[in-house]
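User: Please predict the structure of the protein below. I'd like the answer in structure-token form so I can feed it into my own downstream comparison script.

Assistant: Understood. Taking the following sequence of 164 residues as input:
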Amino acid sequence: MFEEGGVSAVRVDPLAKRLGITRGSFYWHFKNRAALLRALLDRWVEGETEGVIETNEQGGGTASDRLRRLLRTCASEDGRLEMSVREWAAGDADARETVRRVDETRIAYMAELSREAGTPKRDAKARARIAYVAWLGLYTGIAPTTADQRITDMDQLHRMMLSP
């Protein structure tokens, strides 16, 4: 429901109905809607940042291999969840702080891989930040792309990040 309609679509009654559960059952699992939303943010962090980094590291390879795989993994999604969280963060302090922390973690990880692959330390964080913004830009819909085109773009971005 969150991906379909944003945070405003996440309401107890419609959610319970869609899941075929009672309101009481919902409240057995969550104290209130705010607790559900916090759990949603936590799951986003775990699945879309911590889990992605962990899986990427488990894949092994050189730093360049891991950076390319990370960029391709990120580009394989359609971006609805990412953009829904960011839209929510525009009007909610807790979500905004979570997004800020996630952005810092993701950029730091990309910069670390870039440095390990040979990018000078003075350039690695700026290149990672630019690459990160470029990745997010793929989801804005300004220039619609297919999954294949996003992956091709990420391969080019990978080469640009590691160029001398």
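That's the full token string. The chain has a mean pLDDT of 90.
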